[in-house]
């Protein structure tokens, strides 16, 4: 479907065309932003073209509490699922990332550098769907924080509430669990597992 020539001639594909880490520091990752705080339309990367598409208009009033996107060259498959007790599969998408910044960032379809703080182990319909939590690297307010434990607890609480309710509609209760929260070290292990899954399934694109 893809070849290296495509990447060289055209705009880099947000998922395949850039590295997960912008440099040698494994605690800083590249984030591609799909959605903004307050969005009631769910935007998602079209995996073939690399452009953002409208996945769906949310049926409820749920809206992400922060910047939301994914880490390039990651994929949630067998290695990610193996880290999540009670699951045998992952959601088959790039690894999601939630990014906080003191300043408003009011556009999507951008890349940024984010410092990893931790994550939420989300299980959606029996599939592992981890959410990495990070802050904008060098942020004037949040930039000195090193671990999720240093963030106000309400930050994690709001994320848990959003991800546990954003698929709810009257009469239906989605099978979602977001009880497990982890810090920086485990988040880096999840990212490494998602990179290993990407290399296994899509490494041929970069041969």
- Going by CATH, the homologous superfamily would be Inorganic pyrophosphatase
Q: pLDDT below 50 for ≥5 consecutive residues: which ranges? A: none
Number of strands: 10
- Quaternary: single chain
Helix content: 10-25%
Q: Biggest sheet, in brief?
A: 5 strands, mixed, barrel
CATH topology: Inorganic Pyrophosphatase
Given the structure, what is the number of helices? 4
Order of helices and strands: HEEEEHEEEEEHEH
Cofactor: Mg(2+)
Protein name: inorganic diphosphatase
Organism: Candidatus Paraluminiphilus aquimaris
Keywords: Hydrolase, Magnesium, Metal-binding
Description:
- One of its GO terms (molecular function) is inorganic diphosphate phosphatase activity.
- It is an enzyme of class 3 (hydrolase).
- This is inorganic diphosphatase.
- The chain is an alpha+beta fold and 207 residues long.
- It has one domain: Inorganic pyrophosphatase (Inorganic Pyrophosphatase).
- 21% of the residues lie in helices and 29% in strands.
- The chain has helices at residues 4-9, 78-82, 153-165, 184-202; strands spanning 28-35, 41-45, 52-57, 67-70, 89-90, 96-100, 110-124, 127-128, 131-136, 176-183.
- Strands 1-4-6-9-7 form a five-stranded mixed β-barrel. Strands 2-3 form a two-stranded antiparallel sheet.
- Strand 2 and strand 3 (52-57) form a beta hairpin.
- The longest helix is centred in the C-terminal third of the chain and has 19 residues, at 184-202.
- The radius of gyration is 16 Å and the shape is globular.
- The chain starts with a helix and ends in a 5-residue tail after the last helix.
């Amino acid at each position: 479907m893809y070849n290296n020539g495509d990447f060289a001639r055209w705009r880099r594909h947000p998922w395949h065309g850039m590295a997960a880490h912008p440099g040698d520091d494994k605690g800083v990752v590249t984030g591609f932003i799909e959605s903004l705080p307050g969005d009631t339309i769910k935007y998602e990367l079209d995996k073939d073209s690399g452009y953002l598409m409208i996945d769906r208009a949310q049926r409820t009033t749920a809206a992400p509490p922060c910047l939301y996107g994914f880490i390039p060259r990651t994929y949630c498959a067998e290695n990610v699922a193996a880290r999540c007790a009670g699951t045998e599969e992952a959601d088959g998408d790039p690894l999601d990332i939630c990014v906080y910044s003191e300043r408003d960032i009011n556009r999507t379809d951008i890349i940024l550098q984010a410092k990893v703080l931790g994550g939420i182990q989300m299980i959606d319909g029996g599939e592992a769907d981890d959410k990495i939590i990070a802050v904008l690297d060098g942020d004037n307010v949040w930039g000195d924080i090193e671990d999720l434990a240093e963030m106000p607890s309400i930050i994690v609480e709001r994320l848990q509430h959003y991800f546990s309710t954003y698929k709810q509609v009257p009469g239906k209760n989605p099978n979602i669990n977001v009880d497990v929260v982890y810090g920086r070290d485990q988040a880096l292990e999840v990212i490494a597992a998602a990179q290993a899954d990407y290399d296994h399934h899509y490494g041929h694109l970069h041969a």
